[in-house]
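I hope you will forgive my troubling you with a question about protein structure. Could you please explain, in whatever detail you think fit, how the structure tokens follow from the sequence? Thank you for your consideration; the sequence and its tokens are set out here.
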Amino acid sequence: MNRTLSFLLIVFFTFIFSSLSGQVTISGEVNDSHGEPMVGATVVLEPVQRFAVTDAKGAFNIPNVDAGEYTLVITYVGAKTYRESLTINSQDITLSPTLEDDPLNLQNVVVTGVFDPRIQLESSTAITTLEKEALQRLVPRGTADILQAIPGVFTDPSAGEVFTRVYARGISASAEDDIGWYYVSLQEDGLPVSLIQHSYYTPELFHRMDLTTEKVEAIRGGSASITALNAPGGIFNFISQGPKDQFGGEISLQGGLQGENNPLTRIDGTLGGPLGNNWFFNLGGHYRNDEGARNTDFTFSKGGQLKMNIIKRTSGGYLKFYGKILDDFTNRYTGVAATDWDDPKAAFGQDFNTTALMMPGFESNIPDPGRLDEGATNGFDPSQGVHAQDRAFGVDLFQELGKDWILRFNTKYSRKRANWQTSISNNFVSLADPTSYFLGGGFDGFGQVVFRDARTGTELARVDNTGTLAAFQGGSPSFEYLTDGRLPNDAVMGTAAWYKDNAADELIGEVSLSKNMENHDLTLGAAYGFSDTSMFTQGSFGFVTYEPDPRMLSVTLENPGQPVIEFTDANGLSSYGGLFFINARADVSQIAAFVNDRWKIQENLYLDAGLRYESIGHDGSKDRWINLPDEGGVDGDVTTAFDNFLRVASGERDSFDFTYDYLSYSAGLNYTFKQNVAVFFRFSRGNKAPELNYYFNNFENVPINQAAEIQKINQAELGVKWGGNQFSFTTTAFWSQLRDIATTNFEFDEESGSIFYTPVQFNDSRTIGLEWESAYAVTPDLGLTFNGTLQNAVATQWTIYDAAGTVDISDDSITDFSDNELPFNPNIMFNLGTEYEKERFNGFLRWQFMGEREGNVANAFQLPSYSIFNAGLGYAINENIDASILGTNLLNSAGLANFFGANSFGANANGVTTEFVQSNPNASFVVVPVLPRAVVLKLNYRF
């Protein structure tokens, strides 16, 4: 018995010893080309998929590795991928790898716009990657502002964080101010932020970037036609942080001044690490309080978000659960008045850098037309702006199934709400113009009109407006002041209290199955999206002074011997719910099936080709409306005219149920010379189904009996990618054609006081251009970057419907602007920058240039070119703490980003023709300047 026991113990300990002696530890420190430790680099041991993430000293450790042959792969955004073959015997291994700079990320793996992850150099698409370090050098001004660094992409963030426009390569015609992401997909971790778009409901409402974002991948056109849901113009994918094998995080404190010393404060934070048994977590988010870049009497933005993910590393893959809670208030800037068509200058005492020209904050209640019998109201406070809420939860799975099969599955559910309470339009309305009086008191609103400051009750002016009726008798309208009081500029602001309540429950996902063969990588899959959405819009007229710091006006009609008629409520609102009424709902379904093959034709030559069949269904209805028929309005009091014109549902609904089916395809060739040079060619045929604004904005009290057109998009591109040690560049020549573009205009009927959209016109456009991206290391410490776009965009076939300012169609006409330049597409735009980093110091200077653009398709007004200079300085106090100061638009450029047309209520950009400019050389018009200077001090702590 003792001998047997002794023998078993010897065998047991021998087995344990041999097992332990066969397992070793791989460790080391990863440095960059400057000799500085690389924090957060991912170290993977293939093929067993053991991994580590470098700590604050650049160190990593992979324990308990069995003997065998392995490949160590180290990746870091902004550095070339490092690979080293290792033979593991019985001794621990210590390494000191140095990663070379890769400023254009050509050696980094990209996951956007491709069916199988691959390094950017080998992809047959034009992709730009923005790494974490570049993102942290930006002053936080919204999603669109971040994307200005990407070649081939036009962005207009002049309104602020929301109400922005983003499009690529001239695919722009339907990307209007209130639906500016029409052709592109804004994504988080591979799925769209939102499935749907319509007026004032776009994806950037529900997206905020903070420290939880690891990098951004952007693709222009090309394979977006077959890899994104109804977004052939491009994909902008914000990718969150991945697993960390050591506990750590980061806190960023920011404080700064914008415009005329308006304060901005913000805190960002992340925390992540292992949970045990190959489980990892990340948690982070931000909160901010921003008084705004322009002058308003309320806080412009406040709120934040919380994001998380929990990741399980498996043998050959991962399982990730992720979520987001967003609760945020922000607003958007409207236009500023200008004169001088050739050299625009701010007018009426306004200023391009500081004037916001928006309603001041106040609290009012407007009758809810759907619940009048309950006495219900909708609270309205313009200081709220848009209250965006998003609750999202998702599951992401990647798993090798064996025999070279790979399964990918990503899905998320979200519940969104966007409640707008803001002002829309801010045009000059002369006191001699009868418009505001009709909106205040109807046809009986003439005589002695008294204007008082709504906050203080002080009488500002008393006028006799009966002379304005001469406009309807062929004469010149006029008015007369009855006292010494005057209104600024003898006018009121043509503006509306804009209340919108939008909600959506959405389920979005994608599943694919890939098979890697000797010469083929085949992918089959499906994508889906379902949205249950509703929207309500109500517009009321607001009496506001027309001056740089607007005041609300309480307005009454005080004719001698007659009862006093209140044009406005105590806050200055009139025509309650009388300008707009839209109450609609829709179920949207998007289902797609796709197949793609990456065929290795010969060594270094690949053909990447795919098909995508998509079916999009819109099933919904829209309420018809009538004006409240009861005499005396909502309260039954004939002396309170402000509630006499309420629009309410008539009880009739116009339904729509249309399905849009189409087939898209894309094929690209990529040939790689050696390891650092590649050329590619791609041709794509994409389609863009209509968004819900087609039904919601059109068909005013008429049946919705016609489906919208599917826009057809043809694109071709030829590119070169070169990743050298000192110099790297990519350049792509492109051709884009957009057909069957539905266009309509926003109009105001002076006779009825109603606002309407003109009949839809279908048009075509074409853009050719060249985009480039380059980086040059002058010395190990000094680098230069240069990217930009040269392009020519033409409206090859374009007509505009002219309603002549009335709903009556007898005086309507159609104007042909074919072969004019496409508006808002500059012939040149570029970014030129320099970066310096040595020891603890770093700094950068960037010049952003935007070329001249046409302000409308009539080519009657040109937005001048402008430059913006951004700069920053940083200092590493120690290995955990660094401080920096960042500035944007340092020279306070007053560049003009947008054009809203003539300075009259209900006007639009397309209403300005060459004849109009010649006939009205001194007229004022509305432009939207770029955001003014901002300087921010940041303090970062990493642990």
User: Anything to note?
Assistant: Helices lie at 2-21, 132-135, 143-146, 224-227, 435-441, 693-697, 914-919. DSSP finds seven helices and 57 strands in the chain.
